[in-house]
Structure to design on (708 residues):
């Protein structure tokens, strides 16, 4: 014990001497810099909804914070994980070990997110996930240093099912992307559909990045379901919706419900095709004055309105920096304690709170795509039909299987 | 799902619809490989480029040239896009590819693969990766026709017909005309053909231009069905290469027939066991390579 103490004392002394700091500041900022890494899909299928736009969000937050915390500079670096978990993990390791990165955000793609979050747990580094959807992140895969910030498959499935089933959409057939995310979304949504008295008629699992959905759509059609649920994302969702229109499926009484839709997907479909669709989102730029002010500033830099991932990355970064300031150190344990005890309230998150399992719960929104006639501008595409309070949207803490939750 | 006659027939039709895209793209690859010995990995990117020429011609060209009301319509795009992309191809061939003929295949492959990454990267930077809507589908091709066993969208029927026409037209020119015989002779023995006074380098340049123009043509045909996105080509190209390998590198008719057949096999897999639909073509490729390494229609050398 004495030996350990002298070792610690010695290393503190060495650190204090080499960095030329006074003793009181030694507990302040490690390496004299707070470094934030944006690791996400920068070039692939999800790069428009996240990508460089996520880094723009983070950089804006740093600038708005003043560029410095506790007197030390804040740096932002970015990298492309190409939607490959091994690349994501290797990059994160390099950042943690050699580049002095203190926190990683972005992390689109559940596979990449799970890999990096696990590493962060081992290395005691904070991960603030704004992009990925899987509920595993705050359940079996949670760590003391992981935060899931924007949305998850539980909230998406619950809010959408609670809107669609009571309105008459009792029987469902799923088109599901055949990987972890799609399965998770289908399972979560099915649970709520059944709970609300609906029934599941079947599902078809299609490979990721399918160009032609006509075959699956015909299978869904012959199931005779009232609702065709799309448990997929990005290009898969937009292709399925477009081709359903082409085959006149909606005219024969079946309704398509997209379970994860971003503003960029609506842009891709065009209002003509997408009008009237309802889905769940964690953010919309045109919700109130605060979101509009942010979006306007964001647009000036990025030339597009922020998606929920991109706006979420701003909010996550801002609150991370606030927590460092309040804790007086960037020590991950101290910062996490602060993050989990403070209220998260800004333009992005209303009634936000980071729970023990790392889930940031906040109000979610049921959105509807505007008719072309209602739209007054290029980005005037959605309206908020219903605001779902944080407590009703997300998985209750009591159901979480995360080891950080004391039961 | 029950495998009724109706189901099978409708899946065959949909498979044929995908098959014509495979056919027209693998045909372009076969023509290029047959005459230039280049494995053109830029084919997918040029297919994407064709779709974007159509899209931008419809949405952005008018304002750009100071005539906001001008839209390049679908029919014009079917001609303009292949011409534009063909011209791009000719520049690529003249400035870069032509320097590589004396080296191993591998260099051409690396160059075209690099080009594909660059073109795709540039488009990813400027356009929505989820795709942009192409809303220039002509009125006359809207709606569906009753084929007896299913309602089939008119546009897809048009795509099948015109693609088959272009594919077999190309086959006819190369295999059955005098111009085609020059082309084929040029690949066998360029020196000898030169001695007969034929401008072989020009022939090669135009062939490459035609091959990539076919890709652009397919891109325009695809634009109203799929989202026009920077990654549409890279998703397609891997499958198309498998088609080419199965058919036999360089075989014109082989690439057409294989493209159509594999489209149907894939369509059928989507009903029987959907998760395998993206792998079934590669399984067939493995089997074909084991049994007949030169491909179904390839000549053993």
């Amino acid at each position: 014990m004495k030996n350990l103490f002298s070792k610690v004392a010695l290393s503190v002394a060495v650190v204090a001497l080499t960095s030329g700091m006074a003793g009181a500041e030694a507990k302040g900022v490690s390496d004299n810099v707070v470094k934030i890494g944006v690791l996400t899909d920068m070039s692939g299928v999800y790069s428009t909804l996240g990508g460089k736009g996520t880094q723009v969000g983070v950089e804006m937050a740093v600038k708005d914070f003043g560029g410095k915390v506790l007197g030390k500079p804040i740096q932002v670096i970015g990298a492309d994980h190409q939607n490959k978990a091994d690349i994501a993990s290797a990059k994160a390791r390099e950042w943690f070990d050699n580049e002095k990165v203190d926190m990683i955000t972005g992390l689109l793609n559940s596979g990449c997110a799970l890999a990096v979050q696990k590493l962060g747990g081992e290395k005691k580094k904070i991960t603030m996930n704004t992009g990925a959807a899987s509920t595993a992140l705050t359940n079996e895969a949670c760590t003391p240093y992981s935060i899931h910030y924007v949305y998850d498959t539980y909230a998406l499935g619950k809010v959408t099912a609670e809107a669609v089933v009571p309105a008459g959409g009792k029987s469902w057939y799923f088109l599901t992307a055949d990987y972890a995310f799609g399965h998770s979304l289908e399972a979560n949504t099915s649970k709520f559909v059944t709970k609300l008295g609906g029934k599941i008629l079947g599902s078809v699992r299609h490979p990721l990045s399918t160009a032609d959905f006509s075959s699956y759509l015909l299978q869904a059609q012959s199931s005779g379901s009232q609702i065709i649920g799309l448990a997929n994302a990005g290009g898969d969702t937009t292709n399925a919706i477009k081709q359903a229109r082409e085959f006149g499926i909606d005219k024969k009484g079946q309704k398509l419900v997209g379970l994860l839709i971003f503003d960029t997907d609506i842009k891709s479909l065009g209002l003509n095709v997408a009008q009237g669709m309802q889905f769940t989102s964690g953010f919309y730029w045109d919700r109130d004055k605060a979101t509009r002010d942010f979006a306007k500033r964001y647009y000036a830099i990025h030339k597009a309105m922020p998606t929920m991932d991109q706006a979420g990355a701003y909010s996550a970064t801002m609150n991370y920096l606030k927590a460092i300031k309040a804790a007086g150190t960037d020590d991950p344990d101290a910062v996490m304690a602060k993050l989990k005890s403070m209220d998260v309230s800004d333009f992005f998150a209303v009634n936000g709170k980071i729970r023990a399992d790392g889930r940031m719960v906040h109000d979610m929104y049921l959105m509807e795509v505007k008719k072309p006639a209602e739209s007054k501008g290029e980005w005037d595409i959605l309206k908020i039909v219903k605001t779902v309070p944080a407590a009703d949207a997300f998985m209750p803490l009591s159901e979480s299987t995360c080891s950080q939750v004391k039961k | 799902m029950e495998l009724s006659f109706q189901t099978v027939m409708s899946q065959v039709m949909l498979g044929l619809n995908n098959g014509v895209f495979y056919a027209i793209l693998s045909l372009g690859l076969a023509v290029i490989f047959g005459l230039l010995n280049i494995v053109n990995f830029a084919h997918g990117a040029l297919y994407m480029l064709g779709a974007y020429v159509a899209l931008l011609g419809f949405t952005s060209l008018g304002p750009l040239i100071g005539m906001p009301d001008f839209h390049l319509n679908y029919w014009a795009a079917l001609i303009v896009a292949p011409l534009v992309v063909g011209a791009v191809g000719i520049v690529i061939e003249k400035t870069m590819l032509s320097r590589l003929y004396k080296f191993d295949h591998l260099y051409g492959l690396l160059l075209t693969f690099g080009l594909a990454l660059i073109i795709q990267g540039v488009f990813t930077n400027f356009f929505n990766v989820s795709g942009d809507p192409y809303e220039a589908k002509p009125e006359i091709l809207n709606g569906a026709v009753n084929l007896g066993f299913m309602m089939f969208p008119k546009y897809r029927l048009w795509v099948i017909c015109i693609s088959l026409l272009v594919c077999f037209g190309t086959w006819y020119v190369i295999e059955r005309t005098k111009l085609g015989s020059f082309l084929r002779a040029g690949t066998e023995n360029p020196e000898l053909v030169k001695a007969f006074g034929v401008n072989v380098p020009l022939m090669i340049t135009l062939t490459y231009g035609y091959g990539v123009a076919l890709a652009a043509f397919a891109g325009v045909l695809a634009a109203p069905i799929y989202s026009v996105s920077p990654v549409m080509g890279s998703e397609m190209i891997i499958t198309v290469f498998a088609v080419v390998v199965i058919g036999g590198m360089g075989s014109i008719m082989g690439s057409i027939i294989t493209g159509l057949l594999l489209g149907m096999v894939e369509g059928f897999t989507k009903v029987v066991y959907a998760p395998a639909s993206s792998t079934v073509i590669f399984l067939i490729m493995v089997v074909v390579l084991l049994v007949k390494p030169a491909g179904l229609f390839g000549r053993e050398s």
In short: The beta strands of chain B are 144-146, 151-153.
